[in-house]
Amino acid sequence: MTATSTTRQTLWWLRLGLVAGTVLVLGTALATFLGVRASIAEVRERTAPAVLEVSLAKEAIVAAHRAAVTAFEARQARLTGPSEQYEDEIARTSQQLAQVAEHNAAGEAGSQTLLLIEGLLPSYNGFIGKADAHFRQDAGGPLAASNLQSASDLLTAPSNGILARLDALEAAQRAALDRQLGANWLNPAITALWAVPLVLLLATLVWTQRFLARRFRRTVNTALLAATVACVLLGAGTALLLGVQSDARDGGAALEHTVDARSAATSAAAGRARWTLAHVLTAQCGIEGAAACGDTVTAFAAGTPVPPAVPDAPPGVVDESALLGPGLTEPGWTGVLGYGIPLLAAGIGLLAVVGLHRRVDEYRFRARKP
């Protein structure tokens, strides 16, 4: 085989390799971009809202319980029942649970826990309703106290109460969030998927230019140099995905910090409601003497610590989108990545073909000369 034939085949293979490498880089970079985008969308539209909504459901049920207990303490229940605020917060609890069911990311176990909670909520509401009825008819007394305590026990039982099950549901949603933020397309190791082909393509471009410089004694091939610059720019642009992944993990951590802070406020509110309830129960049983309620109320009051001074969570409807934060927003198609990846990859392939076309034709012509 002559030197001319060998050089022509080398040029042909280099052109094919550069085009194939460009297609591979385009595919891996675009797949990474789309995968990261889809993963963040899944987190923002489903998993993160589920975490937040479970926390908001806890806030609502505790706020409802506290409103009812306060109404009984102030003896307003005889006129207004457990209070309008109680009704509003119970309705908000049901609404939040419905949203959790829509966004549930904890699988079948999460759905089962949610069904249990939704089954306990009417029972809790029923105990409050019975306490209200006895308070109106009998001016309180042991029956009202018994139903109030039953409602409190159903809400706060350590292992199977409503709040304990909501804590378990929140933990399951947060575990799903942590898995999504640290695996698959949001795992930093996914960088190798696009970085390795890109480095190989860049190395091939550099080697090709050195080969042409030695063979044709020309230092610079303008088209291939431009392709090399475009390859570097493509690598720098695709590396922005590392920042997007990091922002998503930071956004998830910020959300969990927010949920922790609100949960602390919710726990403090539940403690204050229990403290108030202890006084209400003592007062209700006191109508007929402490012996009318037995030792249960005494033990309840004795086991209720003074609540800590923790600020309440902000009342009312919460803007969930504001709490999710910008870090959990997926990159759009119109940004640097959306346009940059396909345009730069197409430019690399075109410039590589143009840069080698003249040399391939030159050696094809030489091969045909007699």
Task: Extract low-pLDDT stretches.
Answer: none
Percent strand equals under 5%
Overall pLDDT score:
83
The number of domains is 1
Rounded to the nearest angstrom, the radius of gyration is 34 Å
Largest sheet: none
How many DSSP H or I helices?
12
Structural class: mainly alpha
How many DSSP E strands? 0
The helix fraction, in percent, is over 70%
* Bulk shape: rod-shaped
Q: What is the ordering of alpha helices and beta strands?
A: HHHHHHHHHHHH
The span between the termini is 16 Å
Detailed description of the structure:
By secondary structure, the chain is mainly alpha-helical. The protein has helices at residues 3-73, 77-80, 84-103, 107-138, 142-156, 162-182, 191-216, 222-238, 240-286, 294-302, 320-324, 336-368. Helix 1 packs antiparallel against helix 3 (84-103), helix 3 runs antiparallel to helix 4 (107-138) and helix 5 (142-156) runs antiparallel to helix 9 (240-286). The radius of gyration is 34 Å and the shape is rod-shaped.
Which features would summarize this protein structure in a list?
370 residues; mainly alpha
Question: What's the short story on this structure?
Answer:
It contains 12 helices and no strands. The protein has helices spanning 3-73, 77-80, 84-103, 107-138, 142-156, 162-182, 191-216, 222-238, 240-286, 294-302, 320-324, 336-368. The model has no long low-confidence stretch (mean pLDDT 83).
